[in-house]
């Protein structure tokens, strides 16, 4: 019993434990105890400055984050929510500094136990330059990233769990945390359920069909142009890439005019020759067909340019060996060309699917997601991203828009992560990731 008490006292009296305890009580004291006076004073000043300048802000922010205000028209729930999120970020930085203080004090105390001398000021600056300078240089960029990217994402995530809409908006009303009610309403309430599943299925069809068509068309044209029998290849490549050179919004607006059922050239000059009039803008089905054709036209030049470069890098001796073995044109395409192209371009092709999943420009510029559909609060050609835009800027259903945005983000990240994991271009040697 006496031995255990002696060992416990000896453990407490070890410099590492004393330095850690002092750093827990007051950041910087552990460094001063380790005779790192300058470092200890700097940490102490940083701690005092942080507490003096940020304590009240963090206190109010955390309170507002949990309550979203208690007095209508005096407390603004959105401002309190934003202040609360900023407080969490600032508090995380403070905790990181506090953790560094503990780790550093304990590390110096261990060096003291082992009899290693404290580094001189010049040596300490040299160590900082060798090990800590890169982190110090990326710190401003990291802080900007947190407040420009992470903070808006957290704000959107928080809105999805509130009742912020056109009928309940601050400062007239206070917001409330509603847990997962917004997500439940998407699949339970009739108008939200019908609209969500209709828009969601069209978004999937749009993404798969439009992206696949532009990839297939680009690959087919790249194969043709890469054929040895084709002459004037440079001219043909230049012509095929021209749609990519024109700004997309200009092309979309031109196509919107061309597909106009009243004065558009497609109906008036082309289909009229066969006595056919198609309601491109007023019928949801034909509007979707038009959108898919337009996206195929806009998207294939990039894929064509990508595949053209890759096809030129395929070793010719592989085709020669296939010819010796009696391989057909189809077998060479299937076993040589396609695997080689997909290995080099799969990540970019996956990005094409992700980009079209959130392709707001073409949907909104062509016909603003119209035509209207009875019983739904989204247009017949709206995809999830354009529906979110309408919910945010037209009907002010911020909570539902945030909930749908979260679902979109999860779908895109899940699809991209799964496909990247299956892509050979992302595998290391030996088949491991």
From TrEMBL:
<dbReference type="GO" id="GO:0042956">
    <property type="term" value="P:maltodextrin transmembrane transport"/>
</dbReference>
<dbReference type="InterPro" id="IPR035906">
    <property type="entry name" value="MetI-like_sf"/>
</dbReference>
<feature type="transmembrane region" description="Helical">
    <location>
        <begin position="204"/>
        <end position="226"/>
    </location>
</feature>
<dbReference type="GO" id="GO:1990060">
    <property type="term" value="C:maltose transport complex"/>
</dbReference>
<keyword id="KW-0812">Transmembrane</keyword>
<dbReference type="InterPro" id="IPR000515">
    <property type="entry name" value="MetI-like"/>
</dbReference>
<dbReference type="Pfam" id="PF00528">
    <property type="entry name" value="BPD_transp_1"/>
</dbReference>
<comment type="function">
    <text>Part of the ABC transporter complex MalEFGK involved in maltose/maltodextrin import. Probably responsible for the translocation of the substrate across the membrane.</text>
</comment>
<keyword id="KW-1003">Cell membrane</keyword>
<keyword id="KW-0472">Membrane</keyword>
<keyword id="KW-0813">Transport</keyword>
<feature type="transmembrane region" description="Helical">
    <location>
        <begin position="285"/>
        <end position="311"/>
    </location>
</feature>
<protein>
    <recommendedName>
        <fullName>Maltose/maltodextrin transport system permease protein</fullName>
    </recommendedName>
</protein>
<feature type="transmembrane region" description="Helical">
    <location>
        <begin position="133"/>
        <end position="161"/>
    </location>
</feature>
<keyword id="KW-1133">Transmembrane helix</keyword>
<dbReference type="GO" id="GO:0015423">
    <property type="term" value="F:ABC-type maltose transporter activity"/>
</dbReference>
<comment type="similarity">
    <text>Belongs to the binding-protein-dependent transport system permease family. MalFG subfamily.</text>
</comment>
<feature type="domain" description="ABC transmembrane type-1">
    <location>
        <begin position="200"/>
        <end position="419"/>
    </location>
</feature>
<feature type="transmembrane region" description="Helical">
    <location>
        <begin position="238"/>
        <end position="259"/>
    </location>
</feature>
<keyword id="KW-0762">Sugar transport</keyword>
<feature type="transmembrane region" description="Helical">
    <location>
        <begin position="78"/>
        <end position="103"/>
    </location>
</feature>
<feature type="transmembrane region" description="Helical">
    <location>
        <begin position="37"/>
        <end position="58"/>
    </location>
</feature>
<feature type="transmembrane region" description="Helical">
    <location>
        <begin position="398"/>
        <end position="418"/>
    </location>
</feature>
């Amino acid at each position: 019993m006496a031995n255990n008490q002696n060992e416990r006292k000896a453990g407490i009296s070890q410099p590492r434990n004393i330095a850690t305890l002092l750093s827990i009580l007051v950041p910087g004291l552990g460094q001063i105890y380790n005779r790192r006076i300058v470092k200890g004073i700097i940490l102490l000043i940083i701690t005092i400055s942080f507490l003096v300048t940020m304590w009240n802000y963090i206190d109010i922010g955390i309170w507002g984050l949990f309550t979203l205000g208690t007095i209508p028209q005096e407390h603004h729930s959105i401002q309190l929510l934003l202040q609360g999120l900023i407080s969490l970020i600032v508090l995380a930085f403070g905790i990181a500094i506090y953790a560094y203080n503990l780790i550093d004090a304990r590390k110096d105390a261990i060096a003291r136990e082992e009899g290693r001398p404290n580094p001189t000021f010049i040596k300490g600056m040299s160590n900082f330059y060798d090990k800590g300078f890169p982190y110090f240089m990326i710190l401003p960029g990291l802080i900007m990233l947190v407040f420009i990217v992470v903070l808006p994402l957290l704000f959107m995530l928080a809105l999805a769990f509130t009742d912020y809409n056109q009928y309940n908006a601050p400062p007239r009303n206070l917001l409330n945390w509603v847990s997962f009610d917004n997500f439940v309403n998407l699949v339970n309430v009739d108008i939200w359920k019908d609209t969500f599943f209709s828009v969601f299925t069209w978004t999937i069809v749009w993404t798969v069909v439009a992206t696949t068509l532009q990839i297939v068309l680009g690959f087919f044209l790249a194969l043709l142009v890469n054929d040895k029998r084709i002459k004037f290849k440079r001219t043909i490549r230049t012509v095929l890439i021209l749609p990519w050179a024109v700004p997309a919004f200009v092309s979309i607006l031109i196509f919107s005019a061309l597909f106009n059922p009243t004065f558009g050239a497609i109906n008036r000059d082309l289909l009229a020759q066969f006595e056919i009039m198609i309601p491109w803008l007023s019928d949801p089905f034909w509007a979707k067909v038009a959108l898919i054709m337009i996206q195929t036209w806009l998207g294939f030049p990039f894929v064509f340019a990508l595949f053209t470069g890759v096809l030129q890098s395929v070793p010719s001796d592989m085709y020669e060996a296939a010819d010796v073995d009696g391989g057909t044109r189809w077998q060479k395409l299937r076993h040589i060309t396609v695997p080689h192209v997909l290995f080099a371009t799969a990540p970019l092709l996956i990005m094409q699917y992700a980009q079209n999943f959130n392709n707001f420009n073409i949907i909104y510029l062509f016909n603003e997601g119209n035509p209207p559909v009875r019983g739904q609060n989204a247009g017949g050609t709206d995809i999830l991203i354009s529906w979110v835009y309408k919910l945010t800027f037209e009907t002010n259903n911020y909570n539902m828009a945030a909930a749908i945005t979260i679902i979109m983000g999860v779908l895109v990240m899940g699809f991209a992560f799964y496909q990247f994991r299956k892509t050979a271009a992302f595998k290391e040697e030996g088949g491991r990731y």
